Amino acid sequence: MSGPPDVDYTATSARPSWSALPAGLQEALAVALGTDIVEAGPSVGSGFTGGFAAPLRLADGREVFVKAADDPMHAYTAYQREAEIVPQLPPAVRVPRIVATAHATDGDTKWFAVAAERLVARMPGQPWTPGDFQAVTANCEVMAAALTPSPFADLVSFADIIGDPDFPDQLAADIIAGRRPLPDGFQPWLGDRLRELQDLADLHPHALRGTAAIHGDLRPDNLLMDATNQCWTVDWNWLSLGPPWFDWVGLLPLAHRDGIDTAAAIEASPLTAGIPADDLDSATAIIALYFLDKLDAPPPLGTTLELRRHQRLYAWTFLDWLAARRDWA
């Protein structure tokens, strides 16, 4: 395969129906919500997990959006982490409110469900338009201001996460040394730029330090645009400490791919005012290396094969943005 794949982010998951969930979990959720569950809508197709995620209509007229998963799926702990974080976010952060959680055991299997206010909305960036980009940028600026310094006392630094032995921050150096193969199907200049890519990644201990609480996984499928074109942010389970510009800059390679003038956006945004170009490029290099890792390995338990296609698309797109910024092509 040469070049990035096309990924339909509305159809990347394989989720169960409401009827497939254990009766004990359904009952526990109804108790937590304080009313009967009348009807379940179809599960959403976005995301990469096998966790349940669908709207429910309640007997009291409310509609909620429910996520549920069993242990040991990644989604089981991710949904619990999100249920813990969201109620603590500052009011300025636009996020659907958590209204209930429920636990249940089915045989030897533990289950967890979290219900939030239902938001009728769409995903931006399919492709990016100037209007969506402007609205998402404004949302990122508001979030960064509200989350700097972090209102959370127990967050790990993103720079320290990169320093974990399992994080592939030395992937380019390993390829240069012959310890890892050069991934197939990428830009023809990649092999000649590995040293520069690694040098940028090695700047991360300084470049990615910060006191802001950052989402850490901000993608178009974790953003929602409502009927008034206001942007909402979901899936808060990867929260960590980092620079306040990190989440927004992580969206720029995708916007650049769709024709948005990201150089002008960087000049205009207060998020990147005075930030060295090398710091932004260090973040981009780190993310590119992360997505280049394990491209051909089976996806983690509870995720779909679309995760690896997503990785390939993101690795290509982040490398392309670096090439445009640093005249690599």
UniProtKB/TrEMBL annotation:
Gene3D superfamilies: 3.90.1200.10
Domain Aminoglycoside phosphotransferase: 58-267
InterPro entries xrefs: Aminoglycoside_PTrfase, Kinase-like_dom_sf
Protein name: Aminoglycoside phosphotransferase domain-containing protein
UniProt organism field: Kribbella sancticallisti
